[in-house]
Amino acid sequence: MRPYIYITRKLPDSVIKEMQQKFDVGMWDHEDVPVPKEVLLLEARKADALMTMLSDAINETVLTAGKNLKVVANLAVGFDNIDVKTACREGIAICNTPDVLTDTTADLTFGLLMAAARRIVEAAEVVKEGNWKSWSPLLLAGHDIHHKTIGIVGMGKIGEAVAKRAKGFEMNILYHNRTRKPEVEQQLGAVYASFEELVGKSDYIVCLTPLTEETKNMFTREVFNQMKRSAIFINASRGPVVDEQALYEALAAGEISGAGLDVFEKEPINANHPLLQLPNVVALPHIGSSSVETRTAMMQLCIDNIEAVLEGNKPKTLVNKEWKPLVRV
């Protein structure tokens, strides 16, 4: 009997056909609707492997639903949607998709910075809505990017890639990270700063930190108050690192100049969300890694990881390094 894989979102036929050569494959047949909890639980009871998304809650109930589950491959770098502790206890490998999306996410992050700084979305809507009446000296005037100071919170691989792009704009680069990165300092001229110093000195504060207990609600009203009034805040990491009410209040009061957001505390957000009512907010639907090439590479990495585990080998990108498969009787 061939191993059974369940995929929690509809993927292209080409991807499924490749998997079907070796495995029996089940899949939730919707691209943009999360799999219901009861369906996921039912499938987990019989699955040898799950391919999941960040919006799927892979908790203890799911991980212990059946006796066959050996691997969960998350189509993302983040894995805070998964109970890794229980997975380790149950001998289940947890895998993610780092590296293959680094440059694509950095492109989007810097594009979001540029859109917020130069009011590109606002300007495009003015033209589309027929409100462009004439040229004027300060029509939709934004902020320069070149020669300004960018502060990167979370200098992982994506942070480093963003810093490289900032270097091309001759920006001054500050960064804050759990550990210093001497090689980044040497190669890019980045300067390590305390969180408080970075927040106070930067013209653009770019959040790329992973979501942990330490980083949850990292950006509070007090933090926004420490920023320059001309500062622009960019979040391309995870929504819960920001107190969204505090961000709204800071933007509405003019305490900071603008924000570019690819992620939110609860996704998807409603069109009535307070942040969407502000003209100085550029909001995107969590598309940091969303290019055809990169998402295809992420899917392939998930397949490779699942295949490795089911064939008794170590996966390429293992999250729980202490993982040891259980011998099930």
Q: Could you tell me how far the N terminus lies from the C terminus, measured between alpha carbons in angstroms?
A: 17 Å
Percentage of residues assigned to helices? 25-40%
Rg, Cα atoms, Å: 22 Å
The CATH homologous superfamily of the largest domain is termed NAD(P)-binding Rossmann-like Domain
The main pleated sheet reads as:
7 strands, parallel
The first-level CATH class of the largest domain is given as Alpha Beta
Question: What amount of the residues lies in strands?
Answer: 5-15%
* Overall mean pLDDT: 96
**CATH topology-level name of the largest domain:** Rossmann fold
Enzyme class: oxidoreductase
Family: Belongs to the D-isomer specific 2-hydroxyacid dehydrogenase family.
Keywords: Oxidoreductase
Protein name: Glyoxylate/hydroxypyruvate reductase B
Account of the 3D structure:
- The structure is a single chain.
- The protein has 329 residues and is α/β, with parallel strands linked by helices.
- It folds into 2 domains: 117 residues, Rossmann fold (3-Layer(aba) Sandwich); 182 residues, 3-Layer(aba) Sandwich (Rossmann fold), CATH 3.40.50.
- The protein is built from 12 helices and 12 strands.
- Strands 8-7-6-9-10-11-12 form a 7-stranded parallel beta sheet, with helices on both faces. Strands 2-1-3-4-5 form a 5-stranded parallel beta sheet.
- Helix 5 crosses helix 7.
- The chain is globular.
- The two termini are 17 Å apart.
- 40% of the residues are buried.
